[in-house]
What we know:
Elements: H1 13-28, H2 31-38, E1 41-43, E2 52-54, H3 57-64, H4 68-78, E3 85-91, E4 95-100, H5 102-114, E5 128-132, H6 145-162, E6 166-170, H7 178-190, H8 193-198, H9 200-243, H10 250-285, H11 288-296, H12 300-313, H13 316-340, H14 357-366, E7 370-373, E8 376-379, E9 388-391, H15 399-414, E10 418-424, H16 428-441, E11 447-453, E12 456-457, H17 474-494, H18 504-524, E13 532-533, H19 536-540, H20 547-563, H21 568-573, H22 583-592, H23 595-605, H24 609-628, H25 637-660
Parallel strand pairs: 5-6, 5-10, 10-11, 12-13
Antiparallel strand pairs: 1-2, 2-4, 3-4, 7-8, 8-9
The structure holds one RNA strand.
Amino acid sequence: MRPKDTTPNTMNILAELKKRFHDVMAEYAGDSDVQSLLDMIRPAQDARFGDYQANCAMPLGKQLGKAPRDVAAEILEKVQIDDICSHTDIAGPGFINLTVCQDWLNSQVNSAAADNRVGVGLVKDPETYILDYSSPNVAKPMHVGHIRSTVIGDSLARTLRFLGHKVIADNHLGDWGTQFGMIIYGYKHFVDQQAYQQHEVKELSRLYRLVNQLIEYWKSKKGLGSQQRQIEERMTDVERLERVDPTGDKKEDKKHAKALGRARGQLAQARQALELLHAKVTAVDGDQQLYAYAQQHPDIARSSLLETAKLHEGDVTNRELWEEFLPKCREDIQRVYTRLNVEFDVEYGESFYHEMLPGVVAGLQEVGLASESEGAQCVFLEEFETPMIIQKSDGAYLYATTDLATINYRMKEWDADEILYVVDHRQSEHFQKLFAVANAWNAPDVKLHHISFGTVLDENGRPYKTRSGDAVGLEGLLDEAVRKAFEVVSANDDGKPNGPELDEATRNHIADVVGHGAIKYADLSHNRTSDYVFSYDKMMALEGNTATYMQYCYARVQSIFRKGGVELAELRRSPRAIVLGHEAERALAMMLMRYSEALGNVLDEYRPNQLTNYLFDLAKRFSSFFEQCPVLKAEDEAVKQSRLQLCDLTGRVIAHGLSLLGIGVVEQM
RNA sequence: GCGCCCAUAGCUCAGCUGGAUAGAGCAACGGACUUCUAAUCCGUAGGUCGCAGGUUCGAAUCCUGCUGGGCGUGCCA
């Protein structure tokens, strides 16, 4: 995604190797190519090849017209790595295999253990990042669609901060849009004062859903006719195509079959759409109260828009209602963030930028970027067929306008180097336009990235929704995860050979950490660009690549300390004496040393799943070590001390890595 | 119509932006609990990386075409 060097620079074996290779590589290539040659040094793909491998001899051989294996030998001759590598090897067509020497690895691990950053340095060139994530519409309950943005954004913010960047996490709340007009309209006509007194947000949310349902009712009712006509048209298409006889020409027939298939698909789609419309209509028609409301408010869609417009124009009543509703809605959202342990530095919602919007349009007009078209103010861009509309023909502004105002503000206020928008992939075209305009207008240097992500699907591969077609509420989702986690915790504890160890309160706490961790981890462990299938059973199976596996690993480490009566503070004060004798110890240590590599990989393309993959590998190495290397019953005191230190470092890295994902650990499970 | 994205084991997914014999987890099968927590470990089986070309020492990865799916597409956000 970006070419800058994000590799943290302390105790990073890969970085050290690259440093050692740098001058030699420079002899072969111009400065510009050195980096790409160095990037060919990477962790060995297979343990049999050693720890790291350099693949640069093959392209160089080609370039120089020499045999790659000769080039590899030449490179090895020149490069100074005797102190780091015990063994080097040229394999296959010219792979350089590097094995890190034991003494050096020992000393590196000891340094990491003594370091409160577990061996991870700070980036050389810190930057100022604005992270724009979560951004729910207030007054609408948060649903499953908000989870990815929130969790991915939070994790990136934590990781960037840890590596030394300045981060401003900004929750760009939707607090000014059409949903407020709907709520205001609902409040004016349908509010149940008693319910409102009791729980304001719950009532507001009911009002939102009610108004939305009535709007949808009329829209669906009006749409039935045209949908019916569309089906008829599709049917004629299908019938016409079905009557066509095969021509005998293979190509022609194939084309025809394809057209028929598509027509049938479209027909099925149209029928489905009609069914949906019918469902929305009958839901209201079948309910006396709803039906009465609908008849009394035939113009509800337009009226709600009008309430929004009045709010924006400064209408006193609507403004007062907005002032009354907003803090309560924010509190309600805050409750979700509190349980998710997600924090923001600022929460400047859309309303914050409202007064800046005329200036945006005027500014773009002034420099000739914006022009009028069909009554709207538009910015036309060469690369795009459609313009970015910044002011509607009725004078209202759009989210594109707000987004531009937001960039202006962020540049002025924080002089940002990069702004990351953690928003789902469907908005990619919007962001392409936004970035193009912002860079062309008055933010030429800032790096703007759309950190897009895929959709959360159900087990049938369709967007995750409730049976009635609504989005699944986020809080209910979290509750369910915690409930399931509690069951697993209890079942496991009851089944312990020496009887249960955990009281009710402890079980609840563990269920809370494990349940929330499972949800977050399921999300973060997938490549963010893919859609993924949401499944409680998968994530709560608590096996395989799940947060629970890592948390379990951590708990086992703590269990060793508990059983052995080890004082952690004392252990950490004592001199570091990790010696890696056993194969499993060495493998574990090597993985521990690669933590900073993993974090660098996260920032390369802003993908937290690079960290989950790493933690899973680390946890597997630890489990393997745990099986093979007794700690408390080690063969002698030196080995025992060494292994205790190794366990402690592992526990710290796991806990730290999970913390960067926004996930906690517990001492016992 | 145009644009963007996706297709990897029965299932869910990785694959570090061109490297060695394509990996994990689940499910299946076979082993390991007088234990530092078996929420674990060890092993077996499972693949024409959608299809066809191309680029090159080397392709799941890059390019072209095709097939199948998703999303977006002038006044919602």
